Structures are given as C-alpha cells and as structure tokens.
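Dear support,

I submitted the protein below through the web form. The confirmation email said the job was done, but the results page showed an empty box. After a refresh the structure appeared. I'm attaching both so you can tell me whether what I see now is the final result or a partial one.
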Amino acid sequence: ARTYIALDALVKYLRSRRYSVRYVQNITDIDDKIIARANDLKQEPRALARNFETEYYHDMESLGVDSVDRYARATDYIPQIISQVERLIEKGYGYEILNDGIYFDISKFSDYGKLSKRTVEQAEDAVSRIDESVQKRNKGDFALWKFSKADEPKWQSPWGDGRPGWHIEDTAISETEFGAQYDIHGGARDLAFPHHESEIAQIEAISGKEPLVNYWVHTGFLTVNGKKMSKSLGSFITIHEFLREHSKEAFRLFILSSY
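What the results page shows now:
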C-alpha cells in the first residue's frame, strides 16, 4: 500500500502541475509463486491470479488510489514477450538451456549493475523467481522464457511451449505502451536489483538506446521498531485490518508525511 499511495500522489502532483502523465501499472499474473500457490489450493493458476487481482483493485479503491490509466496483465502481452526474446537471441544476448529455457547472458551486457551499482560478478547473489539453473553461463543470468512442465500454463513459442520469465513481462509491457525509452519507472526499493537491473539490460540490449528510464522512483518499506514489517516477525498489518479502525485519509497522511 505504501508504494502505491506514494506513486499515486506523485502522479496526481505532476498532473496538478499541468504535466501530461500516462500511468500504466503491470499485473504479474503468471510466475512460479502463483503456480505453486495454485497447486497447493488445487486451483488453476490464472484463475487464482484473477482473484487476487480483483482483491487488489478493491484495496486500491479503498485507499483512494485512482490515478492509474491502464492495468496491464503480463499474459496479455505474450506475442510481445516472444518478440523481445527473439530479438535478444538474434543480438547474441539470449541462449538456450536444453529442457530448461532461454536465458539472458549478463556478461554480454557491459553496463549490467549500473542502477544498483553492482558488478557482473556481484550479480551472482541475485534472487529471482524463475532463474535457478545449474547450467547457466553466469550465476546472475536470468530467465527470458521457461519451457513448460506438466500441468503448468503454457503458450506456443518458436522454442517450444512455455511461459515468460519475470523480468521480460514488464519490458514487453513498457515497450508496447511507451516505446524503448520513457520518463518514470516506480516500485519498491527491493525491486531495484535484480528486477529493474534486468529490465534495463533487456531493453537497452534490444534497442541500443539508453537510458531506458529518465527517473527511477524507489519507495522505502514500512518499518515497525526499525525493522521491515513482516509476517515472520508478527508485525504484519493488512490494508483491511488498518481500514477497519482508521480512514484512508489518515493512512495516506501517515504515508506521505514520512518522506
């Protein structure tokens, strides 16, 4: 909620200053975590994702977050994702691992790490959702396309049935909606590496243009007693729980007065 309120306020401020702003927000509706949760619940992954999407929209309405012009589901951009993977392979950045998927070779992109100030060697500590493979050329290489396993959602591609990697979902959306370069990219600070770093590598490798984004806006975390709010510490508060006792205006004031 903190991130979405902060970005909502930023967009509304820019519009109040007479800037023309088109705000597109991605919806990740397929990844390993969704598939695992759906299997646990014995549900179809995309149906589960739609349920959470509906809850998310309800939460945003409850918080007064209404500045978004378009919500873009990753699975609505499969042809664009495949196109990006094809172009990365053609340019020498993508390579195939048999019975696994197509990966991005970070050693071929000399600027990898420029956003987070990490070197290619430091990229081996990257934690991503579908990038674990012992056959990768470099430990920090990340998945562009994963070949399908039994009972998983899948789409046809030139390399066989599969599904997109996490990072390329967002770049397919942004390239389609804005082109190879645009002004502002937002998100919580834990996405800066490896997610946003990988977005930069993908698009700049494809287009040969830089920077991908003029301004990166990374929001901080909500903390309790100096530590990040978390379920494991028992300090997690849901949006519903907060709004049962307080107004959305109070929450927005709380968030926006903490910069």
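Response: this is the final, complete result; the empty box was a page-load delay. The radius of gyration is 19 Å.
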